[in-house]
Design goal:
Pfam families: Gp18_domIII_N (PF22671), Phage_sheath_1 (PF04984), Phage_sheath_1C (PF17482). InterPro entries: Gp18_domIII_N (IPR054564), Phage_sheath_subtilisin (IPR035089), Tail_sheath_C (IPR020287), Tail_sheath_structural (IPR052042). This protein is α+β, with helices and mostly antiparallel strands and about 475 residues long. It is about 25% helix and about 20% strand.
Length: about 475
């Protein structure tokens, strides 16, 4: 500050001192799938509201994954979910053509087509000699695939008709549609749209799922390959500091283990088997378990903290599991233990249906536990995001002390709430040499110890006769 003459009083604001550090949100879910309606390849934030979910993406329609996945998530907790819909009813490659012969309007003046989400509907007389038009002869509810005869209709009573149309066919949605990529205009497609969530909806997904698309394994001349959607999500998860809840194939436990071995990342948490639910038609159906597990993880974060493992917590909204998983505490040969030993989380029935398993697909035992990986992510990202203020300030003794003090205050807070055992931050003079400082480079070290889940508890039992003397006292 330049020295200048003043006859009076002035106040100079000194903007140094440690800054408070706020932990980033850990429980935001990123859901990629298919919906019968809603924006395509656009991040949409559903803030824990089932009615908002229906407003954007509709109720469940067979073959589509997003409505049911959101329902499974909200059965666990009112989570924030960034939704990416890849079902594009304007894409001809995702449609199928169909012709229904010998159809008639029922006594209520309606025809219900075999499929929903229809377009390009043509109604003709059965011999195709007459074409009837909308809205003169009928109206169309394209979402539900229902034709309604109008009062002015020229269609004779009980006329036999032929109806041709196109419908959005989810079986034609390819893995490449889900994998997506980047467009020349800077926008994204498929799972890559999750990268735009922070910009578009101001939240960063930390729990990534794509139910219906992460379970299968391609085969190339007998060689089993890794799931392409999970493989693409891995790069995204590393950038977002997120984890992937991956659905194993709904086959045998050997299939699940084979699937898991395709990945060696601490950001992949594989789950087997699928869950059973009762649908809106009172039918019992199987559905990938990743949505329920993602909701459970978000619930655990909100109620206990990101440093807790979601294992051994009950799953709401399911009535069973697609494959029997035997379990007994202390039994090393049961299926549940076999799966966990091979880095596959499972679901057991023990006082309710419980998620059971702590381990990721990590090839490095240091990052074996899901909670450890996520604790490190939350701390690292929080410190990075909360130090924008420190960029471009002069490197002085006060500056270094302020940064260290702020980080140490944060680590003490994490220790007090049980998120870490302890930790500290310091500036190492052997690294911060004059030649580094004069280039504008300053380095701060910090360490911490996360809490570890009590996965293996041992009671050592001894029978002795020492207490017999108590009889005669």
């Amino acid at each position: 500050m330049a020295d200048q003459y003043l006859h009076g009083v002035e106040v100079i604001e000194i903007d140094d001192g440690a800054r408070a550090i706020k932990t980033v949100k850990s429980s935001v879910i990123g859901l990629v799938g298919t919906a019968p309606q809603g924006p395509v390849n656009t991040p949409i934030l559903i803030n824990g509201s089932p009615t908002e979910a229906v407003k954007y993406f509709g109720n469940h329609v067979d073959g589509f994954t997003i409505p049911r996945a959101l329902d499974q998530i909200f059965d666990q907790t009112g989570a924030m979910v960034v939704v990416i819909n890849v079902a594009d009813k304007t894409n001809s490659e995702q449609k199928s053509d169909i012709k229904q012969d010998n159809v008639k309007f029922d006594d209520y003046g309606e025809i219900t087509l075999d499929h929903k989400i229809v377009s390009d509907v043509v109604v003709k007389k059965a011999d195709e000699s007459v074409i009837y038009t909308e809205p003169t002869d009928y109206t169309l509810d394209a979402f539900n695939g229902i034709l309604t005869k109008t009062g002015e209709s020229t269609i004779p009573e009980k006329e036999t008709l032929m109806v041709s149309y196109k419908y959005l066919d989810t079986s034609k949605i390819k893995s490449s549609d889900v994998v997506g990529g980047a467009n020349a205009d800077g926008t994204y497609r498929g799972v890559n749209c999750l990268l735009a969530a922070q910009t578009e909806v101001s939240v960063q997904p930390r729990i990534l799922i794509a139910p219906g698309f992460t379970h299968y394994q391609p085969d190339d001349d007998g060689e089993t390959l890794a799931n392409p959607v999970v493989s693409e999500l891995l790069g995204i998860a590393e950038r977002l500091k997120a984890v992937i809840i991956a659905d194993c194939p709904d086959g045998s436990e050997q299939d699940a283990i084979k699937y898991q071995k395709c990945f060696g990342s601490a950001r992949v948490y594989s789950v087997y088997p699928w869950v059973k639910i009762q649908d809106e038609n009172d039918q019992i159906v199987s559905f990938p378990s990743s949505a329920a597990v993602a909701g459970l993880l978000a619930k655990s974060d909100n109620e206990r903290g990101f440093w807790w493992s979601p294992s051994n917590t009950t799953i709401n909204g399911i009535i069973g599991i697609s494959k029997p998983i035997d379990f007994a505490l202390g039994d090393t040969s049961c299926k549940a233990n076999f799966l966990n030993e091979n880095k596959v989380a499972t679901i057991i029935q023990e006082d309710g249906f419980r998620l059971w398993g702590n381990r990721t697909a990590s090839a490095d035992e240091k990052w074996a536990f899901l909670s450890v990986r996520r604790t490190a992510d939350m701390i690292n990202d929080s410190l990075q995001k909360e130090h924008l203020w420190a960029v471009d300030r002069n490197i002085t003794k006060t500056y270094v002390e302020d940064v260290c003090e702020g980080v140490n205050n944060y680590l003490r807070y994490l220790k007090n709430i049980g998120a870490i055992i302890d930790g500290k931050c310091w500036a190492d003079s052997s690294i911060n040499t004059p030649d580094q400082v004069e280039q504008g480079k300053v380095t701060f070290d910090f360490d911490f110890t996360p809490p570890y889940p009590a996965e293996h508890i041992t009671f050592r039992s001894r029978m002795v006769n020492d207490y017999l003397e108590e009889i005669f006292k």
